[in-house]
Design brief:
Elements lengths: L3 H21 L3 H24 L5 H28 L14 H15 L7 E2 L3 H14 L5 H4 L1 H16 L3 E2 L9 H21 L4 H17 L2
Antiparallel strand pairs: 1-2
Helix pairs in contact: 1-2, 1-3, 2-3, 2-5, 3-4, 3-5, 4-7, 8-9
């Protein structure tokens, strides 16, 4: 249990827990920073495992459990709070936000048992979906109707949940080598994503999600 990849996975889990605390204290924007941190740890735990040639069942299970908190429960909690802040007139409707949590669990279970997803993804991966959800409080600064209209939030929750378990093919950011020819689409995505994030910060995340899905279509069409 005690190795570098598992330590990074635990750091992912801890960051997610801290993000949840900020969320339930009403600070949704600060929660977003801990999602970013969780995503960084989640990226490097797999890289460390491959570099150190560590393959163990505990690491795989631990990774899914950590992801369920950071990229399953946390986005559901954020959506719950967005519903609460909206013009919702139905007492129990904010709990609809946790449909994202339920479908994240289904997504992670599907990923662990689907032999088609050993290299790339089928369905939107939970970290990218979570990054989109945590961007909403920032987008609302420019488009307040996002958090004022419960119908819009309902639509976002349902579409987000569908994408998680859809059959849409999405490329992974894992690299078997760093050849430009073999990884051109991945490098283009990373460069454009970094540029967009530095330009608009969290407000750029919906654009990055659309870019990810669009480039995935191009990536698999050419394979």
């Amino acid at each position: 249990m005690f190795n570098l990849p598992n330590a990074l996975t635990c750091a992912n889990l801890l960051s997610g827990c801290i993000g949840i605390v900020f969320c339930f204290n009403g600070d949704l924007k600060s929660a977003a920073y801990f999602v970013i941190l969780s995503g960084i740890f989640d990226f490097f735990d797999g890289m460390a495992a491959r570099a150190l040639k560590i393959k163990d069942g505990i690491g795989k299970e631990l990774d899914s459990l950590a992801d369920m908190v950071s990229f399953g429960f946390l986005p559901g909690a954020i959506m719950y709070h967005l519903f609460k802040a909206s013009n919702v007139t139905y007492e129990y409707l904010p709990y609809l936000g946790f449909i994202i949590t339920l479908f994240s669990a289904l997504r992670l279970a599907k990923f662990n048992t689907d032999t088609r997803q050993t290299v790339d993804f089928i369905g939107l991966n939970t970290p990218m979906n979570t990054l989109f959800i945590v961007s909403l409080p920032y987008v609302a600064d420019y488009h307040p109707q996002i958090i004022e209209n419960w119908i819009v939030l309902t639509g976002i929750s349902l579409v987000s949940s569908y994408l998680l378990i859809s059959e849409i093919r999405i490329f992974s950011l894992k690299f078997s080598n760093f050849s430009w020819g073999e990884n051109k689409i991945k490098f283009i995505f990373m460069i454009l994503s970094v540029a967009l994030f530095f330009w608009q910060q969290f407000v750029a995340l919906p654009l990055i999600l659309l870019l990810y899905i669009g480039l995935s279509f191009v990536y698999f069409r050419n394979k």
